[in-house]
Amino acid sequence: MLNSFQAEFLFNLFVFICAFSLVLYLPRIRYYIAGLKKPRRAFNQEKKSLAVIVPAKNEKGLRVLLDSLAAQTYDKDFYDIHVVVGDKNDPNIELCKSYKNCFSKVIENQTCKGEALDGILQDLLQEGKRKYEGFVIVDADNIVDANFLMEMNNAFAFDKQIVLGKRCVKNYLYGKKYRSWAVNCNALTYTFLDKMGNCFRTERNMSNTICGTGLMVRRDLVQAMGGWPYRSMTEDFELTVTALLNNWTSCYYEYAVTYTEEGISLKSCNARRRRWLMGYAQVGVKYGKLVSQKFWKYVRDFFCGSKESVAQNSKQAELESGNFWGCFDYLFSFVPLYIYFAGTAILALAFMGDAAYKFFAFQTVDLYSLHCAVKILLVLYGVLFFYTAIAFYEDRAMYGAISVFEKVFALFVNPFYITQYAQFYIEAYYLLLTKKKAKQSWIQVERMES
Question: What gap in Å lies between CA 168 and CA 291, rounded to an integer?
Fold first, then answer.
């Protein structure tokens, strides 16, 4: 039970946590500013040979994607489509035959997307196969913009090993039937990652946070990896971290647009979010220590002056600087949020618990504790509300397809949607630590009608 002094102290502690977290978070504002700038355009006169890889295990809506790939403005002689299925009786095998330069490959017993990608890449890297200079990965439920491959070819001008395109929402291309408040809230995730994150990372030559669709990986990198070695539930995030560890270069290129499909129901969105967080936890446990060691090595080398040779090579110096800040970004960018959200949750529960105890034990209503709990929760809601408003403004072109009412509703609901990530985050680490769910097979989620 809290006395008046203890209650006042705890509320003042909350104020301090807010101020301290804000000071730590202020440098992050530069990420938001970078997202407001007009993205740099690339032009490449040379046409590169591209392989578009489509993992399509048990996919029923593949035709829509293949139609969009067939309608590309890029020269048809410079790209092929490779669809990866899991069964020799898959109807998509016959479907592929009706499109030019579209081939299917059966990889049986695949339990994750990484196995499908590895199987086809191992095949395409063999001697005697067409020598593709870039491998473009697109999920089977997506649609690509008509200029998608042309822009991916242009992105070669940046001389990056990994190019991540912009993700828009496929649901917005259709009627209101395919939208929901859950779709609108989940769509904000791509804005958080790209406009409010990857734009700045690209500007500073830092490793980007990679999504597993709408990206291109250069041939030299695929050869260095020996195919696709990742088997976690989020193989794209595993690529993100190994790119950071191995100094592989990446960039976000907004002009290469992919439209991703979002599950319409909250249940479907939550299934995807649980998978994301489980994969994030898997990668964090597997690679966190290695990233930390690399970061502190950079720090030691800087103070010991052992990188004199780097200063003589401006390009290498730029790469090393990007890798240093990339490690810092991975390790510490969420620290202010952890401090703020953990402090908020603990103190709000303390005040609510105190009020509940006094009510049931003494039949008295402690208004001070109740007011403190409400104030803390309202501040938390206000922070997430403001964060959502920034995202809508940063990516306003993408959200132009939805009505004002839908935007306003999402603006008020999204703070609760974001808060649920804490539950999934705790669940993921609990399942990993208790080894109750070390591995999960490929789960099919609901799809829009084709």
Answer: 31
pLDDT in tens, 350-361: 999 988 988 888
In angstroms, what CA-CA distances link 109 with 104, 106, 235, 404, 438? Answer: 16, 10, 18, 46, 19
A 10 A CB-CB count for 425 gives: 18
pLDDT tens for 117-141 read 999 999 999 987 899 999 999 999 9
Using DSSP's 3-state secondary structure scheme, residue 52 falls into strand
Question: What is the 3-state composition of the chain as percent helix, strand, coil, each rounded to the nearest 5?
Answer: 60, 10, 30
- State whether residue 84 is helix, strand or coil: strand
Q: Find out whether 110 and 442 touch, Cβ atoms under 8 Å.
A: yes
Q: Which residues of 190-199 are buried (b: 16+ CB within 10 A; e: fewer)?
A: bbbbbbbbbb
What distance in Å separates the CA atoms of residue 319 and residue 330, rounded to the nearest whole number? Answer: 16
Among residues 110, 62, 64, 109, the alpha carbon closest in space to that of 83 is found at 62
Per-residue exposure over 63-97, b if at least 16 CB sit within 10 Å of its own CB, e if not:
ebbbebbeebebeeebbbbbbbbbeeebebbebbe
Q: In 3D, which of 46, 12, 5 has the Cα closest to residue 153?
A: 46
Residue 63 identity (one-letter amino acid) = R
Give the C-alpha separation, 301 to 298, whole Å: 5
Bridge partners of residue 136, in order along the sequence: 52, 216
By the 10 Å C-beta count (0-12 exposed, 13-18 middle, 19+ buried), 115 is classed as buried
Mean pLDDT across the chain: 90
Closest CA to 214 of 279, 128, 133, 139: 139
Token output for 102: 């579209």
Count of beta carbons in the 10 Å neighbourhood of residue 99: 15
199 backbone φψ class: left, alpha, beta (φ>0; ψ -120 to 50): alpha
Q: How far apart are CA 413 and CA 338, in angstroms?
A: 22
